[in-house]
Design brief:
The protein is an alpha+beta fold. It has helices at 6-11, 51-72, 118-132; strands at residues 12-17, 21-26, 33-38, 76-80, 91-96. The chain is built from 3 helices and 5 strands, in the order αβββαββα. Helix 2 (51-72) crosses helix 3 (118-132).
């Protein structure tokens, strides 16, 4: 049975579910940042998914990337499955802008998160859900 890693649950807001993945919004208002987590127990690497699930993951990753592009028009999308701290397979999708506070550096561990205000979070989640047809 799928269970979201406690660190992801603590750091993110739930957006909804695509056919394979749970979509999360990183609770850091400094960056438009979505995370896909395949709803498969015990998976830490993409290669552990079967071929059809791998294709589905990439299709959903493309769908999330398109949504971020539509909503935010970023200068660059950073997409990565790192997992050094949280081993549960998850894929980050971060919209980056040349004028953001960390450009061109990576966002991990550089600044403390600035959580969304409740109303702003609800509005962002609603926009993302609409764009992803959730």
């Amino acid at each position: 049975m799928f269970e979201l890693d406690k660190r992801l649950a603590a750091d993110c807001l739930e957006v909804g579910d695509l056919p394979l993945c749970r979509v999360l919004l990183m609770n850091d208002s400094q960056f438009p940042w979505l995370i896909l987590v395949p709803r498969r127990e015990g998976i830490t690497e993409i290669l552990e998914l079967d071929a059809a699930e791998q294709q589905q993951l990439w299709a959903e990753s493309n769908q999330v990337a398109q949504a971020l592009t539509t909503l935010y028009q970023p200068d660059k999308l950073n997409i990565a499955a790192i997992g050094n701290v949280v081993s549960q397979l998850h894929v980050h999708h971060i919209a980056r802008f040349q004028g953001d506070s960390l450009w061109p550096q990576p966002v991990w561990g550089k600044l403390p998160a600035r959580p969304y205000a409740d109303e702003t979070a609800l509005a962002a989640i609603a926009q993302i859900r609409q764009t992803l047809s959730l």
